[in-house]
Design goal:
This protein is an alpha/beta fold. Helices cover 34% and strands 15% of the residues. The chain has one domain: Uracil-DNA glycosylase-like domain (Uracil-DNA Glycosylase, subunit E). A hairpin with a 2-residue loop joins strand 4 and strand 5. Helix 3 crosses helix 6. This is G/U mismatch-specific DNA glycosylase.
């Protein structure tokens, strides 16, 4: 993995990381917003401590552990990645309520256009802020966007100590089962 200086990471602030999407995906995963490492590399969930890629594999979504640089392979499994807020920051707490709300509106338009079977938002706090749903919990949601069902997953950031990789993988696997069964 490329090592970046603090100045190189800071230069990535506010950059956009292109979505990995296609029409009719089984699951469109949605992060909060890109971190600086993701913006510097151009790859989603690129920070070494982020557990998204290992959990995706442990849960059975991918047959092997993918590297962030292999993110386009997700499309061959009917999976994609986007974000609630497009701009990169060092921490999610740098985003304000208006950015989350506008991100939720833009995400709903994207989902309506792409028509994935499931939208999986990774981070209950981001989901609550983007969709003004203060009571949301991890798991399937009542909300639908067109015909797309919504599932909230735990945030795979290494900072989310409430969830281990194993318990996260179990929740991801619940979504995988629902996606496979067409629930």
């Amino acid at each position: 993995m490329t090592r970046f200086t603090p100045a190189e990471l800071e230069a990535a602030r506010d950059r956009l990381v292109p979505d990995v999407v296609a029409d009719g995906l089984s699951v469109l995963f949605c992060g909060i917003n890109p971190g600086l490492m993701s913006a510097a590399t151009g790859h989603h969930f690129a920070r070494p401590g982020n557990r998204f890629w290992p959990v995706l594999h442990l849960s059975g979504f991918t047959p092997r552990l993918l590297k962030p640089s292999e993110q386009r392979e997700l499309l061959s499994y009917g999976l994609g990645i986007t974000n609630v807020v497009a701009r990169a920051t060092a921490r999610a707490d740098e985003l304000d309520a208006e950015e989350y709300q506008e991100g939720g509106r833009q995400l709903a338009l994207k989902v309506a256009r792409l028509k994935p079977r499931w939208l999986a938002v990774v981070g209950v706090t981001a989901y609550r802020a983007a969709f003004d749903d203060r009571k949301a919990r991890v798991g399937p949601q009542e909300r639908v966007i067109g015909e797309t069902r919504v599932w909230v997953l735990p945030n795979p950031s290494g900072l989310n100590a409430h969830w281990t990789a194993q318990t996260m993988a179990e929740e991801f696997a619940r979504l995988r089962s629902a996606a496979v069964e067409g629930w």
